[in-house]
Amino acid sequence: MRNQRSNNKTWLMPVLFGVSASLACVWGYQLETTDHIDVGNVFMILLFLGLSAVIAILVKYSWKVLEEKQKKEKSGVTVITTARSLRLSAVKKGYTRDEFFRTWMAIAACNFVVLLGVYPGFFVYDAQTEVIEVLSRSFNTHHPLLHVLLLGGSVAFFHKFTGSYNLGIFFYILCQMLLMTWIFTYVISYLKKHGAGKKFRVITGAFFGLFPTIVMYNLCSCKDGLFSAFLVLTIILMLEWEELTGRGEKKKKAFQIIISAVLMMLFRHNGFYAYLVFAVIVMVSARIMRENDRFHRNTFLIAPVILYFCINMVIGMALSAETGEHQEMLTVPIQQIARVYYYEPESFTEEEKEILHRYLSEEGLSHYTPRISDILKIYFDNSAYEEDRASFWKMWLKKGAENPMSYLNGWFLTSYGYWYPGAVINVYQGNTVFTFTYTDSSYFGYEVELPGERHSLIPAIDAFYRKLSIEKFQQNIPIISLLFSPAAYFWAFLYLMMTAAKIRKEAGMYPWILMGLVWLTVLLGPTYLVRYTVYLWYAVPILIYTVLLHNKNAVEEL
What we know:
The chain is mainly alpha-helical. The chain has helices at residues 2-34, 42-75, 82-91, 97-117, 127-136, 145-162, 165-193, 198-210, 212-218, 224-243, 247-267, 269-288, 297-319, 331-343, 350-359, 362-365, 374-379, 382-387, 389-402, 404-412, 459-470, 486-504, 513-522, 535-549. The two termini are 48 Å apart.
């Protein structure tokens, strides 16, 4: 009986993973092709059951192979000569200053060539709006104020002294690229410190320096690249903190964590919410396990939250930034109500219509688009919501109880691209922007918004990135398309995290929970875009090495 229970437990996680991944594939396919989920489709039910079984078996088998590998690692003793021991000791120290600089410059050089090809860089995703805020001295808290000042300030400064907006854009993106590639180099040094060989480090460096999705956001003016880089850096610093033993070393590392975490939160609001929940989870878990916080872990869990509040408040007050926008937090409820009204307006009584139109006009509701809520948010009346929130939520609950599947479809249609690997990122289809109209794909913004202007110095590179951004190209190639899919990286991340818990059993892996919480916040966002989850591209190579390849049981003998 005991063996049977143990066997059941070993199958629990693979089955849960298989069911979740299979459900994502089946429901995602339906949403992609028909804009709704059909729970009664017999073929899809059978496909779901079959996929669940196959995925669960594959996960279980992979864990069996890894467990056997780990047993061999534990039983094996590596006899190492004195010279080789000294070399391995050097490896565990990470890069020297010269090695670090050479690696950094190599990755940056790869990015710089592309920057010349797309000069002055990818100036897109609200870039014009942020620059106008600086030029007009009229600020609001819709966009992170630190990013508004850095981007808008760079463009305004260079324009004032040179008359060129392009130079300001180029300068900002170049500085951002150097900072992000520095962080990538730090990550590779971390891997070297943990025994990663030259081949793996070269592959990782090439991935960071050449893979198009990563390069796009290294050279993009939006805040998502910096946010993602600081998110990964914060996690790496926490992992290093757990490995240190000296109080002085831990104190220094905690200071670095605080700086990185604050910057991460200042570049995206959802980073704050995720970090707050993360801090609570870690502190409560420590209390439950009766763990004594000898080295003041709570300091770097609490301090960033306080500093973020203070810095944000000071910047907001100094700039007299306007607040009061609620639609970003209400994206999902707004989309759900609009979907019910769009398809079944007759289900609303006259009284319900009157209440609904206080918050969303008839014209606004006519702009309902299944995969993106940006237009609806423009029409949302914040003042009406502030005067009477109760009526909005009462109506939302009532219509949800009457139309549960419509609510589910309304939410999933703006988020399924994060969990269905076959999704084509084309949420802006039909939208006309500054230099083109989205038709086949909106994988990446690509363009240069006014007042900037594209002046490519290497047209072939410009053409290649345009093709990747607004054509289906890479999204239509089997297997290759998965390398560009946010959902594929999410499932890889989840598998690696589950594998770490099952095989490695290392409590020190807890910092990765922060990334999982950040991912959960995007499910409540206005749509699914690569920019909101680019940190998964940065994280997966690290987890592949630390979870699957790293031999922590190797024994050195002089």
